[in-house]
Amino acid sequence: MQAKSLLLIDDDLELTDLIREYLSPQEYSIDTAHDGLTGLNMATKGNYDLILLDVMLPVMDGFEVLKKLRQSSLTPVLMLTAKGDDFDRIFGLELGADDYLPKPFNPRELSARIKAIVRRIEHIGNAHQHMSLSSAEVTLNPANQTVICNAHPVELTGTEFGILQLLMQQSGNLVTKQQLSEQVLGRKLVAFDRSIDMHVSNIRKKLGQASQQDKIKTIRGSGYIFTEAMQ
Fold this sequence. Notes:
The chain has 231 residues and is α/β, with parallel strands linked by helices. It contains eight helices and twelve strands.
C-alpha cells in the first residue's frame, strides 16, 4: 500500500515530533511546517492527501491559511482546535474544514480521524462503481466527484460531497445526523457536536448560488431530507 502523504502545520515542535513518531509506522509520509505562511505555501504546491492544521499559528493563523487554501484546493483538512472552544470549531467548518479535533488529544483518536478521512478518499477514488445521481436541478457524479446545479458547477469539499451523496441516495427520506456522522465522518455523533449542521449549511449556500430553491429540509432535532425526487 502506498503511503498517504500528510502535511502537519503546527508550531508546537514537541507535538509535531510526537505525531510524526506515532503516525510514521502507520504508512504515512509526513511533512511539517511551523508557521501559517510556510504551511500555506507547502499546501498549495504539494500534493497531499490530508492536511492537519492548527488554529493558533505564527505569521498567519490557521483560519487564514484555510480560507486562502480553499480558494484553490479541496484537499481534506483536519483542524486542531483548543479544547472547548466552540467558536474555533464552527468557524473552521464554515471555512471548509472537513473535521476538527480538540487539543489535547489522544494519538489514537487522531489516527482514527485520519483513517476515517482516508477511507472516504479511497471510497471516492473507487466511485466508478457507483452510479451518478440526478434530480431536477442537481447532478452528482461520484466517478469524478463533481456536482452540477442548473448547469453550474458546485465545488464541494470531500465531506460535503459525501453528505450530499448520502442525502440524494435517500431522497425523500429522513437521514439522521447520527447516520451522516457515522457514514461520512466515520465517528459517532456526540452531544453538542455541530459538525454535520455546519457541513449541511455550507452545501445549502453553495447550491443556493445556482438555485433559489432550498433542496435540503431540516427535521429539527433529527436530521435532513433531500426534497427533490431522483430522475
